[in-house]
Design goal:
The structure holds 2 protein chains of 2 kinds.
Chain A: E1 10-19, E2 22-28, E3 31-32, E4 37-41, H1 48-55, E5 63-68, E6 71-72, H2 77-81, E7 84-87, H3 99-109, H4 115-123, H5 139-151, E8 157-161, H6 169-186, E9 189-194, H7 197-203, E10 206-211, E11 214-220, H8 221-226, E12 231-236, H9 239-248, E13 254-256, E14 259-263, H10 267-280, E15 285-291, H11 295-309
Parallel strand pairs in A: 4-9, 4-10, 7-8, 8-9
Antiparallel strand pairs in A: 1-2, 1-3, 1-5, 5-6, 10-11, 12-14, 12-15, 13-14
Helix pairs in contact in A: 4-5
Chain B: H1 2-11, H2 16-38, H3 44-76, H4 81-85, H5 91-127, H6 139-152, H7 154-166, H8 171-186, H9 200-203, H10 212-236
Classes of the chains: A alpha/beta, B mainly alpha.
């Protein structure tokens, strides 16, 4: 029998949810330390949203258990929900009301003082637009309003589901900066679901990767990236021929904008061997350089491993 | 609960709900005034019976259909349910507040109808005395009739609200309301009409009021039972 750790912000054991015959998530064992920014990654349909809905008590688990700061969500939904602020859907605001009125509706339900609205508006830098109708807000402003609403009552856990969806580059940068500063400014743990790997890499300290309804990997981002094979960037006079040569040696190279990329784990010696292979194939090699391990590379390698296992 | 009611009331600001609440009784008043102009010399009892008959027969069921759909759409439109359900709240309060607001709006419209009829009668007294209803305005009769119709509409209101809150699409509550009203119209002269929730309000004045009390009792009892079932069902279902 596995034991829950009450110190964890989120902890699940054997968490599963089925809709009829379809298994949406299975055997998910989340472990989110307090104070971290946890990036919850996966492609569409991987089970991220279902897991979040289980975490918020919007769905009941078919198997297992999920706890928020030690409170079982299924058995003590209200108690668990007191620890959580959630941004689920950017447009889940009343467009005919002002930003202030939207926040006030939630504030009054939560029985918080009116000063709480000013505090959260300042946190998301939306004070000047507070008395404008939300229908006139940009998507970025709506996202920030949603974040402000999630911050009402200073929850210990913030659950943000795809908060950067549909934002322009400036909006994404603003949202990223806001999220990154949250643990320090509010003391909250951030659980951030996204399919934008680059954004998560710049924001999260820890990650969990979902694939086909299962949590395939989780842990501190730096530690996970350390175990990821770095990427070798290759520029040659004939990239198509380079692909063939590398495939012949058992690699899985990719070609993008005339640049060949391949994951290698053997360091400089393996890079030299690849160089020899390319030269041996009659190619002129212009560049051969290692790039830093990325979340995308980690994600792709895990996905490939999952496919092979299947 | 008062907090929830005031929040629900605030959400109505700037919506079509308030416009509808103003338009529905006004339409009945205008129609009854036009009838009075064509048939001068009616007394207030006749005017009141005619206007409340029109109100309860068609306008009230259709208005409750539209009102409940609009009230539910305030949450369905922006997909606000997830946000609300993720809060540390007792969900039943939210649905109870919606139901109370719906019935309060219906009550407000009934009151407005009585006031508008009285004002229209006064206007006719000034500009067309021959067409104005005779005698003093029967406030007690108006309050009794409209009050009983309001109470008898509880069952219909709760069914409509349940459907509107359960289904995101406007089609479900509109179809329910149209079908219910159609059945009520078709069954109007039948004794069984008092068992049809959409015909319960009109049963207060229909058939010389013979079915008024059973319709009133069934409307209130059915409404309270439906309210309880709605709150239990919607609070417990997965979002």
């Amino acid at each position: 029998m596995q034991r829950h750790d009450a110190r964890l912000a989120v902890e699940s054991v054997g968490l599963g949810k089925s809709f009829g015959d379809r298994i949406a998530v299975a055997d998910v064992a989340l472990s989110v330390e307090p104070g971290v920014i946890y990036g919850f990654l996966g492609p569409n349909g991987a089970g991220k949203t279902t897991t979040i809905r289980l975490m918020l008590g919007l769905l009941r688990p078919s198997a297992g258990q999920i706890k928020i700061f030690g409170c079982d969500v299924a058995a003590e939904r209200k108690r668990a929900a007191r620890h959580v602020g959630a941004l689920l859907e950017a447009r889940a605001t009343y467009d005919h009301l002002t930003g202030y009125e939207n926040l006030d509706a939630t504030r009054r339900v939560l029985d918080l003082p009116a000063t709480e609205i000013t505090r959260v508006l300042e946190l998301v830098d939306l004070r000047e637009a507070a008395h404008r109708r939300v229908g006139h807000y940009s998507l970025g402003m709506r996202q920030r309003l949603g974040l402000a609403r999630a911050l009402l009552g200073a929850p210990r856990l913030l659950v943000l589901d795809e908060p950067m969806n549909g934002l322009d580059p400036d909006g994404m940068r603003d949202m990223r900066d806001s999220i990154r500063s949250l643990p320090e400014r509010t003391g909250a743990t951030v659980f951030l679901s996204s399919h934008l790997l680059g954004e998560v890499q710049q924001t999260a300290t820890h990650v969990g990767l979902m694939h086909s309804g299962r949590l395939v990997k989780q842990g501190p981002l730096d530690a996970l990236l350390q175990h990821t094979a770095p990427e070798l960037t290759i520029r040659t006079n004939d990239p198509a021929k380079a692909l063939i040569a590398l495939r012949g040696k058992g690699y899985a190279p990719t070609l993008e904008s005339q640049v060949v990329r391949v994951h290698v784990s053997g360091g400089d010696a393996e890079a030299a061997a690849i160089n020899n292979t390319l030269i041996g194939a009659g190619l002129g090699v212009y560049e051969l350089s290692f790039s830093k391990a990325t979340l995308e590379a980690l994600y792709v390698s895990l996905q490939n491993a999952q496919r092979e296992a299947a | 609960m008062l907090t929830w009611l005031s929040i629900e009331a605030r959400k109505l600001k700037g919506t079509l709900v308030l416009l509808l609440c103003g338009v529905a009784p006004t339409l009945v008043t205008i129609l009854v005034t036009l009838i009075s102009l064509r048939r001068p010399g009616m007394d207030w009892h006749t005017v009141l019976t005619g206007s409340t008959g029109l109100w309860s027969f068609f306008v009230l069921p259709m208005t409750i259909t539209a009102l409940s759909a609009l009230l539910a759409h305030i949450e369905h439109g922006p997909r606000a349910w997830d946000h609300l359900f993720a809060l540390p709240i007792s969900r039943w309060r939210l649905f109870a507040a919606k139901a109370i607001v719906l019935m309060a709006l219906v009550g407000g419209m009934s009151l407005m109808l009585a006031l508008e009829l009285r004002v229209a009668g006064g206007v006719l007294q000034v500009f067309g005395p021959a067409a104005a209803p005779r005698g003093p305005f029967p406030w007690r009769e108006a309050a009794t009739l409209l009050g009983e119709m309001w109470a008898a509409s509880l069952c219909m209101g709760m069914i409509q609200l349940w459907v509107a809150l359960r289904f995101r699409s406007f089609v479900a509550p509109l179809t329910t309301g149209l079908c219910g009203t159609f059945v009520a119209v078709a069954a109007f002269n039948a004794t069984e009409a008092m068992y049809v929730p959409w015909a319960m309000p009109v049963s207060i004045v229909g058939a010389d009021g013979v079915h008024a009390m059973p319709a009133l009792q069934m409307g209130v009892a059915g409404g309270l039972i439906t309210f309880a079932l709605m709150v239990i069902h919607l609070s417990q279902r997965e979002a």
